[in-house]
Amino acid sequence: MTNITNLKNKEKFIVSQSNQLIEANYPTSMTARAHKIARLILSLISPEDKDLRTYTISIDALQRYLGMSIGVKWGAFYKELSNIQDKLNEKPIEIRKPDGGYIRTPFLGIEVFPKTGTVTLEISGLLKPYLLELKKNYTSYLLINIPKLKSAYSIRLYELLHQYRKIGKRYFEFDDLQKKVGSNYPKYSNFKIKVLKQAQKDLKRHTDLAFVFDEIKEGRKVAGIQFIIFGNTPEKENPNQLSFLDDAFEVNDKAEKPALSEIIVQSLNALGVSEQNIAKYLAKGFEIITDTKSRESAKKRCTTLENYYLEKLELTKNSASSKENAAGFFIKALKEDWATSKTLQKHKKNEAVLKRKQSETKIKQLENQLEKLKKERDTKKESIIEQLIANDAVLKSAYKATMDSLGDFIKGTLSSVKHLPIREQYTEKMAINSGVNIYLQENYPEKFTSLQEIEGKVKNIEKAIADFK
Predict the structure, then answer these.
(1) What's the confidence (pLDDT) of residue 86?
(2) CA–CA dist 158, 141 (Å, integer)
(3) Structural domain range at position 331
(4) Which of 45, 120, 250, 329 is the most exposed place for a label (fewest CB within 10 A)?
(5) Are residues 356 and 464 in the same domain?
(6) Same domain for 388 and 410?
(7) Residue 344 falls within a domain, yes or no?
(8) What per-residue confidence (pLDDT) applies to 349?
């Protein structure tokens, strides 16, 4: 059965990808809207997820996210979606693997349902290793930075630079950068205007990053680009601009699980129950039990239809009166929910185990939610700190206060970086990094007020976990 979960209470929207996927080469055909849809889906995937799923979104919400007019004629919207899917899948993205191999795959599948007013989206299964169970070497950023970027190149440059935000600089060979952003401007003069200058303007206006760049030349030819990366406060920042998506999504398990395992079907066949009757009984589910009270009791006792069938198979096998007509005995047991006292005693024991497992499951869910909240808090905190230390005077003041507070022993361990500029010392040494960050939080509290809501949620969940335990 398909498991559908509403995202109303899901902490969102953080885009997490392995660095290999960020470093992939993208086709020139991918449009900004195609990139935006892909990033929207990536923001719904947690690095701790065990499997990929499909995601169903209302058409109205998708139109709004893409910056389209609400209520646009269906034909025009369908045409735009078809164009987006064509652009996503016309040419594959290419990921180079450490062993010298590579993966080439389309990014996304799209299915449209006009009658229900929804669209279902699915990420390529080949990308699973680059999106799920990520423990290291991956980059996360807030989806809020993406929707207002007009250019596909701006989206890709934001990702590529955000990956190096802590280092503060990044170099690309010109040819390599063209492949990574999917550029169709082979001449540098055009690339500079259409890609670099446009992205520089877009990121400064709409995201938490800004950059300047230098051209690295070989003779008269531009061979590479050196980026210097800064934290940034976007114009008209609105942290709730994606709130309309809260109720817009359903998350669906990809794999359709069989109603009964093959071994149960074979056991039913062995009793003499035909395939046709098996299908008929399965279609009724628990409704095959004629008495309402018995039906509710069976649901509570067995929880799944498969467990119910297993229970009746065991009863049929162990009952002497089933020998003459095993199939008839089994069907009557199904319809009337026959059960022995031994079965009911076993159920009581199982109930206690189930309650314990439910508590464990709830704790695990809360722990996962807590981990994601902390990740969102840390991502926002990093962004605020980056914006503050982009000002050299602020960084210098925080650095001096940090060094003054350190003991002689700790200062001695920092001798290997004392010759470096302050910004590089901050990047290289944890003691300096931590001290500067603490100083900034203590001396610029007004900059960190946006974290108070998240901190409140963290404390509430930590309390809930403690109460369960």
Answers:
(1) 72
(2) 10
(3) 262-339
(4) 120
(5) yes
(6) yes
(7) no
(8) 61
What digits encode the pLDDT tens for the residues 376-403?
888 999 999 999 999 999 999 999 999 9
Q: 228-245: per-residue pLDDT in tens?
A: 998 888 876 555 566 667
Question: What is the pLDDT at residue 10?
Answer: 37
Domain presence at residue 368: yes
| pLDDT confidence of residue 353 | 62
Using DSSP, state whether 146 is helix, strand or coil: coil
Residue 68 lies in a domain: yes
Domain shared by 137 and 209, yes or no: no
CATH number at residue 13: 1.10.10.10
Residues 232 and 290 in one domain: no
Spans in the chain with pLDDT lower than 50:
1-11, 253-258
* Structure tokens given for 238: 């609105």
Q: Which residue do the tokens 């464990």 mark?
A: 360
CB 363 within 8 A of CB 371: no
Query: How many domains is the chain partitioned into structurally?
Result: 4
Structure tokens, 99: 């062993």
Cβ–Cβ < 8 Å for 25, 173: no
